[in-house]
Amino acid sequence: MPAVRSVLVVGGGSAGTATAVLLAEQGVAVDLVETNPEVTALGSGITLQGNALRVLRRLGVWEEVRRRGYPFSTLGLRAPSGELLEKITDTRTGGDELPATVGMYRPDLTRILTDRAVELGVNIRFGTGCTGLEQDTDSVLADFDDGTSARYDLVVGADGVRSSTRRMLGIELRTRPTGMGIWRAFTPRPDSVTHTDLYYGGAAYIAGYCPVSEDGLYAYLVEDAQYRSGLHPEQRPAVMRELAEHYHGPWDEIRPHLDDPSRINYTWFESHLLDGPWNRGRVVLIGDAVHVCPPTLAQGAALALEDAAVLAELLTDSERVDETLWQAFTARRLERARTVVDSSVRLGQWLLDGEQGDVPGLMDRVARVVGQPA
Questions:
Q1: Nearest C-alpha neighbor of 321 from the set 168, 138, 155, 134
Q2: Which of 72, 204, 247, 329 has the fewest CB atoms within 10 Å distance of its CB?
Q3: pTM of the model
Q4: Chosen CATH of 6-69+102-174+271-370 out of 3.50.50.60, 3.30.710.10, 3.40.50.410, 3.40.50.2300
Q5: Count of helix runs (H) and strand runs (E) in the chain
Q6: Which residues 6+ apart lie within 8 Å of 146 measured at CB?
Q7: What is the DSSP letter of 127?
């Protein structure tokens, strides 16, 4: 019998929805609250490594992810001229039966996970926030911004980088910019793009793209962090196209499609890691609420999904919520997350400093860590 019978999940992103799915499968009554008024996801595309795919298969959504995404198992390295320097067979961190990577349109992944949660009976309340938490040894009383309240055996805070759950717990965690900013765009996919290519050098630190469907592409350019918030949305395409002018090969086919302001966004790379237990009593934080890193290794979504899988496993395999459970959770998640966060930041810092770091060695070390089941 699971250690919990009722759980509140705060946040409808990958980590929160995956947790809700896995607990609901085991008969746990799950409420999920999300402040956005409907299913939504910020961003253009998402790169899902094999260890993320392993969790998505466990969630029962792998076939739908494969159908709507774009699987591939190679990585190209190109010069700014477009010359293909090397084509690498990528590590299948989810096992040989899964591709190394799937590119997806981020809102599609959100919708797939949400539909799965609804199918299993998760009670999802959009446009609702959690405003207060009061706990005792056996339960947590949660207050909501619609004036209602309810009591749960456990609360999972999966509400992102600026987590309000983390703030309510009184946990101080400094989120720092790493010095880089990224332009992201969703465009049509040229036939020539069948896997991710990375361009190093030139006007940007990294210029890359990832196919996300038969028709779609996620393109990105990484530069020094700048205050781009003053740009009117209509100005964004021209600025991104100007930066992309320095890259050729498939970029020459992508660039003309950088014309829709609604499909272009700009954010800074950030990083944080909560060093120590991620719970306070019967409230636990997962996903971006506790670990954020630059997408230089494309492991952010995978870490969040792994958090959900490990937490749900411990809760359904244990008889009680106690210190033994939390120690096991910390032992399985903290150092693994630290490896990914530190390595992601280090790779970016090498680029900022113009250092010739051992990028292949770093990527191999991370792949060996995340290639082991979480």
A1: 138
A2: 72
A3: 0.96
A4: 3.50.50.60
A5: 10, 20
A6: 128
A7: T
